[in-house]
Every structure is written in C-alpha cells, then in structure tokens.
Amino acid sequence: MRLGLVLSEVGQGLRRNLSMVVSVVLVTFISLTFVGTAILLQSQITQMKTYWFDRAQVAVYFCTDFTTAGSCDQQAATDDQIAAVEAQLQSATLAPFIDAYYFEDQELAFQNFQDQFAGNAIASLVTPELMTEAFWVNLVDPEQSQILSDALAGLAGVESVVDQRSYLDQIFAILNASSLTAVGIAALMLVAAALLIATTIRLSAFSRRRELGIMRLVGASNRFIQTPFVLEGVVAALLGSLLAGGAVIAIVHFFVQGYLTQTLPGTSFVTVNDALIVAPVLLVAGGLLAAIASNVAISRYLRV
Amino acid sequence: MIRFDEVTKVYRGNARPALNAVDLEILAGEFVFLVGASGSGKSSFLRLVLKEERPTSGQIHVLGQDLGRISSRKVPYFRRNLGVVFQDFRLLPNKTVFDNVAFTLQVIGKSKGFIHEAVPDALATVGLDGKGGRFPHELSGGEQQRVAIARAVVNKPSILLADEPTGNLDPATSDGIMTLLQRINANGTTVVMATHDVGIVDRLQRRVVELVGGRIVRDERGGSYTQAVPLVREQSFGPAEVTP
Ligand SMILES: Nc1ncnc2c1ncn2[C@@H]1O[C@H](COP(=O)(O)OP(=O)(O)O)[C@@H](O)[C@H]1O
Ligand SMILES: [Mg+2]
C-alpha cells in the first residue's frame, strides 16, 4: 500500500469537509471530556469509599449525666455497665463479627475533640465532663452493624449504637448520582459523536464517489479504499480526544488540585497522575470509536 | 474464458428477469458483440462478468474461476484481470490524462517505476502520445474514450469489457475506437462489447450474440446486427423476408 497516496487522500478529505471535521472534533472533545470526568469521578468515589469506610466504625455511646436519650436518665453509665458491654463485645456471639474495638473515655474524647476543632472557639468551651464515652468498633464486614445494634442498644447505660456509614451513604449516594449522570451524558454524546463521524465519512465518500467507483472497477483492494476514510475519521476524532485529555488534566490541575484540595484539606482527591492515566484511555476510546463508525459508514461503498 | 450456465438475473422490484437462462461460452481471444435493444440485458451481462452483481440462479465462470465462490475480499484481485470501458468514459475530471491512467495502477499498489513505464506505453497504444498532461475537458469525446481504453488496458487484462463505448461518438470517431479495440483484440485480449450500433457490427463481421428480453435469441459467428434468417421463436418458418 502506498502510504504517501493514502495520506494525501486523507488530507484532501479533511480539507474538503472542513466544517464537518470541525464538528466531529468538537463533539468528540465534549463527549470524551464527559467520559473522562465520569471515570475520574468514579475513581474519586472509590478512593473516598475506601478511605472512609475503612475508618467508619460503629460507635456505642454511653450515657452521661446530661443525656436522656435511650435508656439514659441523666445518669452517667457506671463502670459495671461499661464492663457488661465490653463482655458482650468479647462474647462468642459478637466476637467473630468484630475486627477491633477500643474504648474512648472522656479524656481521650476531649483530646480528639480539641484536635479536631483546634483554633475553633468551641474548643475552649468544652470540658472533659461534657464528653461522651464510647466503644469504637471496627466490624469484619461493615455491612453487619445491625447485629451490634440489636445486641447492645437495649443494654443499661447505653445511649445509642450508631453506624457512621449511614452518614457516608448519603454523601456517596449524591456522588454516585452525579457520576451516573455524567456517564449517561457521556453515553448520549458518544452516540452523537459516532453518528456524526459516520455522516461525515459518508459525505466524504459521496464527494469522492467517482474515484470510489473507478477504484472498485479496477480492483483496488477494500482495505486500500477504506483506509483513507477510516483515517480521516480517526484523525478528526483523535484531535477531539487530545483536547478532551487536555481538558480533563486541566480540570484536575486547576479545579480539583488548585481549588478543592485547598478548600477541603484532609480529603484525598484524584491527582494529575490519575488524569494522566485517563487521557490515553480517552485517546484510545476516541480512535476506536471513529475507526468503527467510519468503517461501518464506508462499508456500504465496498459491497460487491 | 467466460462461461454462463443457465444464468438468470432478476433485480429486486422487477418481476421480469434482466437475463433469462443464459447459456454462453466465450473463448480466449474472441471478439464478441453483444447486441439487442435497450433493456435487453447487455449491461447486466457485463456487470455479472465483473461480479458487480450476483446471478439469481445459474453459474458463471470467468478465467477459470467460479464467481459464486470468490469471496468479496478477493473480488478486487479478480477484477485486476479485467478492463472495462463505458459509454460515458468515467474519467476523473481533476486529474490529467496521465494521472487518470496512472490512478488505476496506483490503487492496486504498483511501483512508481512500473507506472512511469506502463502509462506512456498505454497512451501510445491508444494514440495519445504527448497528451498526458491534458485534462479530460481539454479533449474531444473520442480522445476521452481513448484515455478510458488506455486506463482499461494499462494493466494488461485478459478480458476487455466495453459497454456501448461508441454510444456517445460520431461514426468517424467510432471507427477509430473500433480499430483500436480490434488491435487490442489482435494482441490477445478477449473483447466483449455491448452495442446497438448496426453499422459497426455489420462491418466487423465478428461473433454476434443477440439478446431479446434477457434471452439469447442468436449466437452467430461472423454475423451482422440484423440476422440473416427470421427469428424462430417469434415467426413460423416462412420465406426469409428480412434483409441481411
Ligand atoms: N439495478 C437495477 N435494478 C433494477 N432493474 C434493473 C437494474 N439494472 C437493470 N435493470 C433492468 O434490467 C433490464 C436489463 O437492463 P440492462 O442490462 O441495463 O439492459 P441494456 O444494457 O441492454 O440496456 C431492464 O429491464 C432494466 O430495467
Ligand atoms: Mg446498457
């Protein structure tokens, strides 16, 4: 196959259909940016889930002198009551479900509070006596918090059993929904991109139908006839993919790293490195999409 | 070289067959006229030889190959053994004469060196020496058809198919084209030419295959356009009134 001839055909095709090619570039650009964003959002969610769910625990809060909830009656839990709960945690029924647990007494709780709200006015208002004592329990399977709740919630001196994952679940539900929205938009845009590429290639083939007819007549191989058109679609789509890759990297660099990380320190976010992995994926996806779409579009002209 | 066995072609949406149980053998080196009124199936016959269409039933062998068994991937390679010429020339208007002929060789992957030898050769054969730099619109109809013939024979095909190649040309120019086709035939290329040009067929006295409504009604060696004896199918035996 004569590479020079093929490339000059590709160049001609791109120039002849400039406005269509520009629209292909733009549509692949936007659709793949959505795809890239969706991928990064998914990886962000996974990353946060691992981070938070690993830390998420079931808290068994004890009564203080000020609480009235649960079985509390403004009576702090006694040492016996706490020991009874611990005995339950170590019992044959519960122990297999528990990975680890520790007791947070008022001193420790106070310390943690001071650390968490360092520099905040509220930190100076609390005293150790106001803090709630608790067992922090890590489960082997975080899904099974109900077992703990059933076993411990009714015991004397226990205020409540709280699975912290219930807070996280709401946040992740929102994040998941937005990620799914991005995926949905990306899918629709990809369909549009594929159709647009097919239409562009069909137009290009139509404007070259004379050459195509003669090529078929004199026995140019299907691959020879196909290649310039497929390359035409692929080149246009790759331009769009490059832009999308750049956009994704820019979003992570300027928005996520530049803004979100500053605003929400302590949360781990996707990095430019993640974006650098996604960009080639977009490139391959764009190229593949265009190759398939143009192949299908041109095959009509190759039927014998 | 070309063999049709009971070939019938029915186009979709057209109840009447374009070709009806056609049995025909064309031997290597023959010059065959395919004659008949418009719509009698001449072009369909040529398209079937080229494997541009599939027969509805029957078998076609070309150059020893069963066309029904050639995969669509192999069809291009099969076509490289055939040259085709049409009534409307089908040149590329934005390419020079040289490039039009060279295009054929380029797209089948021939080397530059080969192209620069073969194209001037082919142009000389058709009498267009020195006109390689012209564009099609700068040529007369006869010259354009010569370019088309040069393109068809530049790859030295074994068979040349011509679909009414003189249909757009005046008689004098047509004669020139016919001389050229005869010369190509004399050099060993089998030529099958569809035409309804009575004068040409009568003068050349070659094999004539006549189609009526997709059926072969006459196959005569050294024949003329109008037959010497009346049609058996349409008339009962009687005095031969038809002039030869
Ligand atoms: N692509 C096609 N689709 C449907 N009918 C066709 C097609 N090509 C030819 N025909 C029909 O087949 C018959 C033979 O046509 P054709 O082979 O072109 O005859 P000729 O070349 O002798 O004029 C005609 O009735 C024509 O209408
Ligand atoms: Mg015809």
Describe this entry's structure for a reader:
- Chain A: The chain crosses the membrane at residues 21-41, 180-201, 229-256, 276-298.
- Chain A: One of its GO terms (cellular component) is plasma membrane.
- Chain A folds into two domains: 2-53 and 170-299, no CATH class; 57-163, 2-Layer Sandwich (Alpha-Beta Plaits).
- In chain A, 68% of the residues lie in helices and 8% in strands.
- Chain A has helices at residues 3-16, 18-55, 79-90, 106-116, 145-152, 165-207, 209-218, 222-263, 272-299, and strands at 58-62, 98-104, 134-139, 158-163.
- Chain A has a four-stranded antiparallel sheet with strand order 2-3-1-4.
- With 244 residues, chain B is an alpha/beta fold.
- Chain B has a domain at 1-80 and 198-244: Rossmann fold (3-Layer(aba) Sandwich).
- Chain B contains seven helices and ten strands.
- Chain B has helices at residues 42-49, 75-79, 97-107, 112-125, 141-153, 171-186, 198-204, and strands at 2-9, 19-26, 31-35, 57-62, 65-66, 82-86, 159-163, 190-195, 207-212, 215-220.
- The radius of gyration of chain B is 19 Å and the shape is globular.
- Classes of the chains: A alpha+beta (304), B alpha/beta (244).
- Chain A binds chain B through residues 1-2, 5, 210-211, 213-222, 224-225, 302-304, and chain B through 50-52, 72-73, 75-80, 82, 84, 90, 92, 103-104, 106-109, 151, 155.
- Bound molecules: adenosine-5'-diphosphate and magnesium ion (MG).
List the main descriptive attributes of the protein structure presented here.
heterodimer; A: 304 residues; alpha+beta; Alpha-Beta Plaits; 2 domains; 4-stranded antiparallel sheet; 9 helices; 4 strands; elongated; B: 244 residues; alpha/beta; Rossmann fold; 6-stranded mixed sheet; 7 helices; disordered C terminus; binds adenosine-5'-diphosphate; binds magnesium ion; ATP-binding (chain B); P-loop_NTPase (chain B)
Helix and strand string of chain B, N-terminal first? EEEHEEHEHHHEHEHEE
Counting copies of identical and different chains, the oligomeric state is heterodimer
Gyration radius of chain B, rounded? 19 Å
By CATH, the architecture of the domain at 1-80 and 198-244 in chain B is named 3-Layer(aba) Sandwich
The helicity of chain A comes to 55-70%
Number of helices, counting only DSSP H or I runs of 4 residues or more of chain B = 7
Structural class of chain B, by secondary structure, is alpha/beta
Number of separate strands of chain A: 4
Main sheet summary of chain B: 6 strands, mixed
List the uncertain runs of chain B. 230-244
Strand content of chain B: 15-25%
- What global shape of chain A is seen? elongated
Q: Which spans of chain A have pLDDT < 50 for at least 5 consecutive residues?
A: none
The fraction of residues assigned to DSSP E strands of chain A is: 5-15%
Strand order of the largest sheet of chain A: 2-3-1-4
Mean of the pLDDT scores of chain A? Answer: 86
The geometry of chain B reads as: globular
| Fourth CATH level, the homologous superfamily of the domain at 1-80 and 198-244 in chain B | P-loop containing nucleotide triphosphate hydrolases
| Mean pLDDT over all positions of chain B | 90
